[in-house]
Design a protein that fits this description.
The complex is a heterodimer of chains A (about 375) and B (about 700). Chain A is globular, with a radius of gyration of 22 Å. Chain A folds into two domains: about 130 residues, Winged helix-like DNA-binding domain superfamily/Winged helix DNA-binding domain (Arc Repressor Mutant, subunit A, Orthogonal Bundle); about 170 residues, Dna Topoisomerase Vi A Subunit, Chain: A, domain 2. In chain A, strand 2 and strand 3 form a beta hairpin. The longest helix of chain A is centred in the N-terminal third of the chain and has 23 residues. With about 375 residues, chain A is α/β, with parallel strands linked by helices. In chain B, the strands form four sheets. Chain B has an eight-stranded mixed β-sheet. The N terminus and C terminus of chain B are likely disordered. Classes of the chains: A alpha/beta (about 375), B alpha+beta (about 700).
Chain lengths: ~375, ~700
């Protein structure tokens, strides 16, 4: 799924947002901004793209309450700011934009959350990426280790070739925030599959045990809910190299959501799911039946966990039979387990027994 | 209680002079207020302050009270109390009586609301001091008519049970600034006691006293040398209360027997007419007939069962033609409520918060005793939000600090479902939670306590119902305030939207698109789509008046017509001036104007000022409207409420007429606690009398 970055198109799309407000005022109506509803009730499976996208539900933000009127004003300031950056060839982080908004008077942001949300709103309305807006996230990308070679354009404008096994230290290759073709080229690899891992502890355990070399795979540390660039680079390697992706997470309701965002698309970014989601990714573990089968040390589900599981039951992304079974089983067992609980059977158990068994089922070991 | 006390005193004085004072004290320390070291110092302060307030009130002096407590000996728990006032002072010849006598007779003979219904007054303090330290109490007193003050030590001879004076002298008494002191009283006494902080402390007692005595200036220096000051917030002294005669419904057998015994009247009808309130000539005759006594019976010679018959007629047990004898209600002008505006001021000065709702009910009668309930609620950010509200209980302006749970007034608070008025309350019962304090004051000629300690009011369905009603009404005030606050915030937001944000959106979008800035009128009408009312009530420092402005904006697409009504403190004596729009009085404290046409996009203003008020008396005006379209910032007029106000007005007017029918018993000024002549007065010490 290649993307084209066209500054003129970006500007034109942003202007249509401004025009909607302007035209309403001219008609003697309160100004408005129309955008898709961004909840799980408005995401649906896109057969053509194979990922979950926003549906047809639209909400109108109109200037009849102070809060939404301020939001419209802020959107105008952001549009103006983006145009200035496009013209000047600059970029800024979302956090920088938040601080720059101090000078916007009535249009200034109350919190960084507001500025992040508004950037997403504009992406959704214009079908542009925030990279087109010259806005960078604060979140850092993932770490990656394995026999994978990448060309990256550095600050001095030179292409560097980096092998994510031989040219890096123990912390691996750091994935930058922009992983589009203008910045990253996927050069070559010698791995059979990619494994995405939730926690740093487990990532380091597999490296120390030499798992990437023993099983000939690329390891990617997700750092919790993965950043866009992490999901995007997994997607590119999956698509361009046709590599299978397995996802190894804790066994709890929140991990299920992490998996959904990798495989099906996140609710918040459903407008760009086709760039971020890897529909062929497989959930490796920890599954609800692992907790029983391996008799893992487990914690009771909290009230919040149970609420999250129940919400997932009605989430269209978890509608298939396997997920419904897993969620119901976890609710029944009433327990959740961490990846690192496998250490109950020794430090090597995960690499010698658990992963080989699980990968064997998939024909990857 | 008075009967009982008098009984004790009489016994002490006549038959059992040998009983040591220490024994008397030990036996009665609970109701004397000296049952613990912590409580003793509070009681001592209380007796001194009550005396000062009563004396100042009678002499129509604005009280200035200074209390100082110092630690003399921490190991032995010895404290020194200095209590000074600017009251009328006590003449030299009376000092010994005031500080060395029990004062029972004076207060039950005439019935009126009075602070000093508790304990045995300042005498108790002198006794306690003598018993615990062996030292006398020093009194300095100056009356205005004399050039110098008298200083004297009052002690007592515990062997002879006799008050003793010593070191009497005359001195020149000066204020701190060395100006001569005109009049006043200073008591210095030492006692075994412990000073503590918290809900039951001298500090809390003085703070509460200051709330219900907004006319008093109170200064307190605590044992750590810290100075607390509660300033006077009004120059208005409490209304001088008139003593009334007892009402037949409220009298007990013992009292009736004594009254008969002491009567010099030759005819029963005359006795009934002259010694009781609410008894007309017709009623006097009917009472005689019902109790089967001749109208010519001489009260002094009536036999016990005759007295009992009379009492039964009083109480409606003996009837005439199948009906109890109809008696008039006692007059209610013997009560001295604090009144709403002063409760508001009193609460505001001790608790830093913005909103106060108050309610003074019309006086009413229970068992022949006039009583009146008033309540106040202060609410706001200055207070703790997640704790139970503070309860401030008062009986006849005296703070009640102990036994909160068992008190009728607390029960009345607990019976209200405060949740509907915006406070938290588990299950809609019990003491509510929230950033608030609730004040309850019972003014009555006969306050009934649960025990001799006199700290909790006993159950009385009439008082309970009145308290509850007052609380419900006050709660409605709180709810309205909270609703209004919410609405006002909303209105402010709308104004910010159309005045600031919308123009900015228009300008910015025009600038980005490089087009002309569009006209806003149409969008504004669509966004507001309402009629909006703005109210401002502010103190004008130059004119010393309270200026009120009501502005009505029509942000709808049609012309509108309204009646606008406001509340204003007419009852508290304010007058409305500079009211150019005129309008008319709709009820007591409610004024209205008609606004015939208000075109779309137009505004109308109502301006007036309130005179005869002090700063802070009136800070918020409530605006009501009559009309079809809703007005943001004003409340739709409840015609029933208007009716209720008119009814209350009528009741007040009628009770004022009633009290004119029966002239009050003349009250004569006496220095606090001094009673001349034969008034059942007994000296505890069996001394000179």
């Amino acid at each position: 799924m290649a993307r084209v970055n066209d500054p003129q198109l970006t500007k034109a799309r942003l202007h249509s947002v401004v025009e909607e407000m302007y035209d309403r005022i001219v008609k003697g109506e309160p100004p408005t901004m129309t955008l898709p509803v961004r909840t799980k009730n408005n995401i649906g499976f896109d057969r053509k793209l194979g990922v979950y996208k926003y549906g047809k539900k639209r909400s109108t933000r109109d200037a009849t309450s102070l809060g939404s009127a301020k939001n419209l004003l802020r959107a105008l300031h952001v549009v103006e700011f983006i145009e200035e950056m496009i013209e000047a060839g600059k970029s800024s982080t979302l956090r920088e934009m938040y601080y720059i908004s101090e000078g916007w008077g009535l249009g200034k942001f109350g919190s960084q959350n507001e500025s992040n949300n508004l950037a997403e709103d504009l992406e959704v309305v214009t079908s542009c990426l925030r990279e087109d807006f010259k806005l960078r996230p604060e979140e850092d990308g993932a770490r990656m280790i394995g026999n994978i070679t990448i060309n990256e354009l550095n600050r001095r404008g030179q292409w560097m070739t980096i092998n994510a096994r031989d040219d890096v230290g123990d912390s691996g290759y750091g994935v930058p925030y922009n992983v589009e073709v203008e910045k990253i080229e996927l050069k070559e690899h010698d791995v059979k599959f990619l494994m995405a891992i939730e926690t740093g502890g487990m990532f380091d355990r597999l490296i120390e045990n030499g798992f990437d070399e023993d099983y000939n795979c690329g390891l990617i540390h997700l750092k919790g809910q993965p950043a866009r660039s992490t999901r995007r680079i997994i997607k590119r390697m999956n698509e361009e190299w046709d590599l299978p992706v397995v996802v190894f997470l804790d066994g709890d309701p929140w991990s299920f959501r992490i998996f959904a965002s990798i495989a099906y698309g996140a609710i918040k970014t459903a407008h760009i799911s086709e760039y971020l989601a890897t529909p062929s990714a497989t959930y490796l573990g920890i599954t609800a039946d692992d907790i029983l089968a391996y008799d893992l040390p487990a914690d009771e589900l909290s009230k919040k966990d149970i609420e999250a599981l129940n919400a997932e039951l009605s989430d269209p992304r978890f509608a298939d039979g396997w997920w419904q079974d897993q969620i119901n089983m976890m609710l029944e067992v009433g327990k959740k387990a961490e990846q690192q609980s496998l250490a109950k059977y020794g430090l090597d158990f995960v690499t010698d027994t658990y992963l080989p068994e699980k990968l064997g089922e998939l024909g990857l070991a | 209680m008075c009967d009982e006390m008098s009984g004790i005193a009489k016994k002490m004085a006549s038959n059992q002079k040998q009983i040591a004072i220490s024994e008397f004290f030990e036996k009665n320390k609970h109701f004397l207020g000296f049952d613990s070291l912590q409580r003793s110092i509070i009681t001592a302060v209380k007796e001194a302050v009550d005396n000062s307030l009563d004396a100042c009130e009678e002499a129509r002096i604005l009280p200035d009270i200074k209390i100082k407590i110092s630690k003399i000996d921490s190991k032995k728990d010895i404290l020194e109390l200095v209590a000074e006032d600017n009251g009328p002072g006590i003449p030299q010849r009376s000092i010994e009586k005031v500080f060395g006598q029990l004062l029972f007779g004076s207060r039950f003979h005439a019935i009126r609301q009075s602070r000093g219904q508790q304990g045995i007054g300042i005498t108790g303090v002198v006794m306690y001091s003598q018993l615990t330290t062996g030292k006398p109490t020093n009194v300095v007193s100056k009356v205005a008519s004399e050039a110098t003050a008298v200083t004297v030590n009052i002690g007592l001879d515990t062997r002879k049970n006799k008050a003793v004076k010593s070191d009497q002298d005359r001195i020149i008494w000066e204020n701190e600034d060395l100006s001569p002191k005109e009049h006043g009283l200073k008591v210095t006494t030492r006692m075994k006691a412990k000073y503590q902080r918290g809900r039951q402390s001298v500090y809390q007692y003085l703070r509460m006293t200051s709330i219900v005595n907004p006319h008093a200036e109170i200064t307190f220096v605590d044992p750590d040398g810290e100075k607390h000051h509660w300033p006077r917030v009004t120059e208005r002294l409490p209304r001088k209360v008139d003593a009334i005669k007892p009402h037949p419904h409220g009298i007990e057998l013992g009292q009736l027997q004594r009254m008969c015994r002491e009567s010099k009247d030759s005819r029963l009808t005359v006795f009934l007419r002259q010694n009781f309130s609410g008894v007309s000539m017709r009623a006097a005759k009917e009472l005689c007939e019902a109790s089967e006594l001749p109208i010519t019976a001489k009260p002094k010679t009536m036999k016990p069962d005759q007295v009992r018959s009379l009492l039964e007629a009083f109480q409606g047990e003996r009837m005439l033609g199948g009906k109890p004898i109809k008696l008039l209600s006692p007059p209610t002008n013997c009560l001295s409520p604090i009144e709403e505006m002063l409760i508001k001021k009193g609460l505001s000065k001790t608790i830093d918060s913005k909103f106060v709702s108050t309610m003074t009910r019309a006086p009413t009668v229970s068992h022949g005793n006039p009583f009146q309930v008033e309540v106040g609620l202060i609410f706001g950010d200055g207070m703790v939000a997640d704790k139970h509200v503070e309860i401030l209980r008062f009986a006849n302006r005296v703070p009640l600090m102990y036994q909160q749970g068992g008190c009728l007034l607390t029960k009345a608070i607990e019976s209200v479902d405060w949740r509907q008025y915006g406070l938290e309350q588990a299950g809609g019962k019990g003491v509510p939670k929230g950033p608030a304090a609730i004040l309850v004051h019972l003014a009555s000629t006969n306050v009934q306590f649960t025990s001799e300690a006199k700290e909790a009011l006993s159950d009385n369905e009439f008082v309970f119902e009145e308290s509850r009603k007052a609380m419900l009404e006050m709660g409605r005030g709180l709810r309205k305030h909270l609703e209004k606050k919410k609405k006002m915030a909303k209105t402010r937001e709308k104004f910010e939207l159309i005045n600031d944000i919308l123009p900015a959106i228009a300008e910015k979008s025009a600038a980005i698109l490089e087009r002309p800035v569009p006209e806003l009128a149409g969008s504004i009408t669509k966004i507001m789509s309402a009629v909006i009312c703005n109210e401002s009530t502010s103190w004008n420092r130059e004119t010393k008046e309270t200026d009120v402005t009501i502005t009505l904006f029509n942000y709808t697409s049609r012309a509108r017509s309204y009646s606008i009504l406001v509340n204003w403190p007419e009852k508290s004596g304010a007058s409305m001036i500079a009211n150019e729009r005129g309008g008319r009085k709709e009820a007591m404290g409610i004024w209205g104007w008609k606004i015939e046409t208000l075109d779309p996009g137009q505004k109308a203003e109502i301006n007036y000022s309130l005179a005869n008020l002090e700063k802070g008396d009136w800070t918020e005006t409530e605006v009501f409207f009559r009309g079809s379209q809703d007005v943001i910032g004003a409340t739709k007029l409840d015609e029933k409420m208007l009716e209720e106000i008119r009814n209350q007005e009528k009741i007040l007017a009628e009770s004022a007429e009633n009290s004119e029918d029966e002239p009050p018993v003349e009250s004569r000024y006496e220095p606090a606690g001094v009673v001349e002549g034969d008034t059942n007065q007994t000296t505890l010490f069996g001394g000179d009398e």
